[in-house]
Amino acid sequence: MKYPTGVKKSIHKYNSYGNRGMGLENDLSTTNEFYRLNDIAIIYKKPTPITISKVDYPSRLEAVIKEGYFRTPSTTDYNGIYKGKYIDFEAKEVASKTAFPLYNIHDHQIKHLENIYRHGGIGFIIVRFTTLNKTFLLTIECLLNFLNNSKRKSIPLEYFEKNGYIIKDRYNPRVDYLEIINKLYFDGGENEK
């Protein structure tokens, strides 16, 4: 843009990338709230079990937690009920364009999801590749299959593309993972792609 003094100023055009920066956890919170408000499912984020050991009380209204510790290792991020079935899942974001590092999910979380599945519940992980803006649902069965048949320290993107289910971003519900759960467990049987 030219100004009367002859100084040139540039106008920066900012690109909007919609979903970037919002975060998977916020998207899931919005989605789960949509499910609850529309009486579709009751699914909540589990609180992390913390014991508070030191609190500073300058006044009753201004208490400050100074020290705390985790009581027990947390299981997974979310649980609830949908169409009479118990649902439990872990959600993770990764910046990698090629793989999901297995150090992002703990052995006790995998065991927990395996136990949910063994007792008739629905267990899975949701992984968002933030750089690619792709979100996948991977059932516990597929996760265990990979872990039992591979020595890799990460799950390649190709495995998610072949064995997982892409969750398309929407306005509402934001991350409609129950659409996939319907196809897998209620609308024609398990493991239908």
Structure description:
With 193 residues, the chain is an alpha+beta fold. The protein is 27% helix and 28% strand. The model is unreliable at 9-21 (pLDDT under 50).
Give me the Rg, rounded: 21 Å
Strand order, main sheet: write it out: 1-4-5-7-8-10
Beta-strand percentage? 25-35%
Mean pLDDT: 84
Give the number of domains: 1
Number of helices: 5
Query: Helical residue percent?
Result: 25-40%
Count of strand segments = 10
Helix vs. strand class: alpha+beta
* Poorly predicted parts: 9-21
Output the helix-strand order: HEEEEEEHEEHEHEH
By CATH reckoning, the class would read: Alpha Beta
Main β-sheet, in a few words?
6 strands, mixed
What is the first-to-last residue Cα distance? 53 Å
Looking at the structure, what is the overall shape?
Answer: globular
CATH topology: Trna Endonuclease, Chain: A, domain 1
In the CATH hierarchy, what is the architecture at level 2? 3-Layer(aba) Sandwich
Brief synopsis:
The chain is an alpha+beta fold and 193 residues long. The protein has helices spanning 24-37, 107-118, 140-149, 157-163, 177-186, and strands at residues 42-45, 50-56, 64-70, 78-82, 85-94, 99-101, 122-129, 134-139, 154-156, 165-166. It has a single domain (24-186), classed as Trna Endonuclease, Chain: A, domain 1 (3-Layer(aba) Sandwich).
